[in-house]
């Protein structure tokens, strides 16, 4: 029997562009012998299924169902491919929990917490061999002291919206005088901001997933960019960044990273596939946690498809196992 799956894409933030591309990759690689897939677009205007041969059909949000030619279609599970709100911040997960419909991502609480970079860092801080950059968290309508921030933190620093993704609204500040403009830019995206000391080192990202009941760490990717940091342009413009999968690392470093990555997955109570960004200082030295993405990009050039290929697995099999693990 085929499972009826909703593939949810779109969203209400600037990241919806990436979500649409991710969903296209997922749709191409879902096994049509095992799954009946309905791609549903979520926008500010509504939630719609858009069949190729007719007008779009609105989703009944009372029970998350579709009525097509008089036939009611209910879903056995949802593949959430929405980056940013409301897919990655726990809102959709809470909605599906209330309807008792399983989905492919972390639960509502983990999704909500990990969307906030500051809160996430506070939780993972105690993990063995994991370091976090010194930082300050400030809020839009609460007074903060610029002079004190400059005194507490060493330049250069990163200023980032606390709940954003895809590096939108982020700046690297090399001079104290530029801090105010960077804060303004970040406050355009979010009401909470994280100011973090810059950690010098090599930048990496690694997928972690539970398949067949076992937590697996995918091959690590090293990210090198000629830009100041891995921003939106570097992420999504071909040729701006160099991505090497698997990363050239000593075996003991790979083992150490895998252990830390698994510990993060467990500590944050993750499920499905997540991606952890980190920095290694000096000669593959200290591990600095940057952030975790609970709905990592699945576009043709994204890290997870690259890493799945590097482990010698077909995306088709990967998604089948992912659905089996999370939806049943």
Automatic annotation (TrEMBL):
It comes from Pedobacter ginsengisoli. Mg(2+) 2 binds at residues 291, 293. This is D-alanine--D-alanine ligase. PANTHER family: D-ALANINE--D-ALANINE LIGASE, D-ALANINE--D-ALANINE LIGASE B. Binds 2 magnesium or manganese ions per subunit. GO terms for biological process: cell wall organization; peptidoglycan biosynthetic process; regulation of cell shape. It comes from the Bacteria. Residues 124-324 form the ATP-grasp domain. InterPro entries: ATP-grasp, ATP_grasp_subdomain_1, D-Ala_lig_Van_CS, D_ala_D_ala, Dala_Dala_lig_C, Dala_Dala_lig_N, PreATP-grasp_dom_sf. Pathway: Cell wall biogenesis; peptidoglycan biosynthesis. GO terms for molecular function: ATP binding; D-alanine-D-alanine ligase activity; metal ion binding. Transmembrane segments: none annotated. One of its GO terms (cellular component) is cytoplasm. Mg(2+) 1 binds at residues 277, 291.
């Amino acid at each position: 029997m085929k499972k009826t799956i909703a593939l949810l894409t779109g969203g209400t933030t600037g990241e919806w562009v990436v979500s649409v591309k991710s969903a296209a990759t997922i749709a191409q690689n879902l096994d049509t012998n095992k799954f009946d897939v309905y791609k549903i677009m979520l926008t500010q205007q509504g939630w719609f299924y858009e069949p190729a041969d007719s007008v779009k059909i609105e989703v009944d949000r009372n029970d998350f169902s579709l009525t097509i030619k008089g036939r009611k279609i209910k879903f056995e599970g949802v593949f959430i491919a929405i980056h940013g709100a409301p897919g990655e911040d726990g809102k959709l997960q809470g909605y599906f929990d209330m309807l008792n419909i399983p989905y492919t991502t972390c639960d509502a609480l983990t999704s909500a917490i990990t969307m906030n970079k500051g809160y996430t860092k506070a939780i993972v801080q105690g993990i063995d061999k994991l370091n976090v950059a010194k930082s300050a968290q400030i809020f839009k309508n609460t007074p903060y002291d610029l002079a004190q921030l400059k005194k507490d933190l060493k330049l250069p620093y990163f200023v980032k919206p606390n709940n954003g993704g895809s590096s939108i609204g982020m700046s690297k500040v090399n001079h104290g005088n530029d801090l105010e403009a960077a804060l303004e830019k970040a406050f355009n995206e979010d009401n909470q901001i994280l100011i973090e000391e810059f950690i010098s080192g090599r930048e990496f990202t690694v997928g972690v997933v539970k398949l067949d009941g076992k937590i697996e760490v995918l091959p690590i990717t090293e990210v090198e960019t000629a830009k100041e940091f891995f921003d939106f342009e570097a992420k999504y413009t071909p040729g701006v960044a160099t991505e090497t999968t698997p990363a050239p690392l000593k075996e003991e470093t790979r083992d150490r990273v895998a252990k830390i990555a698994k510990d993060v997955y467990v500590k944050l109570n993750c499920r499905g596939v997540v991606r952890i960004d980190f920095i290694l200082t000096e000669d593959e030295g200290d591990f600095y946690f940057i952030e975790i993405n609970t709905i990592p990009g699945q576009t043709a050039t994204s890290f997870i498809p690259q890493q799945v290929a590097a482990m010698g697995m077909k995306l088709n099999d990967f998604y089948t196992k992912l659905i089996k693990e999370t939806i049943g």
